Amino acid sequence: MTQHYRLLTKEEIARLEAQHCIASDWSGVEVADDFHTDYIHHTRFSGKVRLGVFEKEFTLAGGMAKHSGVYYATLHNVTVGDNCYIENVKNYIANYEIGHDTFIENVDIILVDCHSRFGNGVEVSVLNETGGREVIIHDRLSAHQAYIMALYRHRPVLIEKMRKIIESYAESHASDTGTIGSHVMIVNAGYIKNVRIGDYCQIEGAGRLKNGSINSNEHAPVHIGYG
User: Fold this and answer.
1) Distance (Å, rounded) from C-alpha 43 to C-alpha 17?
2) Which of 54, 125, 126, 169 is spaced 20 to 30 Å from 81 by Cα?
3) The whole model's pTM is what?
4) d(Cα 57, Cα 67) in Å, to the nearest integer?
5) Are residues 17 and 128 both part of a single domain?
6) Is 190 in a helix, a strand, or coil?
7) Is the pLDDT of residue 128 over 90?
8) Which domain range does residue 166 map to?
């Protein structure tokens, strides 16, 4: 179901400002019909920002409960889905669409910079470090396809056709905006740039993630730990 957004009322803007929120242009901030200002504090808005509703709580390990909302963060060209929790973003989040029920806390920066393919179409040298057997990675790469690309160099026409197919796929999935799925948890992370993050992914303590796609989903969730 497509979410409907509206502009903030003057009263809502006044309440947000009283809660130490600022915006480069309040007309660039849109909210869901049932939006309430109660759980938005110390937040800076820039560019086009869309906010859902904040009605649920997250229960963390040890029984600690935190209400969904946005606290101590800077958002630039970001859509935040319903019932997300975002707190303590040291720098900013830029150019992302965030799903619903996602938890982001204690991160340095999350951004998409310019037109990104999110790791699709990158060549990786395998088998021979001096090159010549590169595999072009993408978010649907199979072991069979990687095997053919690396070991069937005696079939140059086949390899070239595969290259063109992957190049077309990579470009069709390129965007200026990244996605962070629903039911995602990102905590105590550092630098995240040009990364597309699937549903139910958990990122804890990762120092640096750049130019990639994390194919996480409800039935096969991905966990990235400290390092």
Assistant:
1) 9
2) 169
3) 0.92
4) 4
5) no
6) strand
7) no
8) 122-172
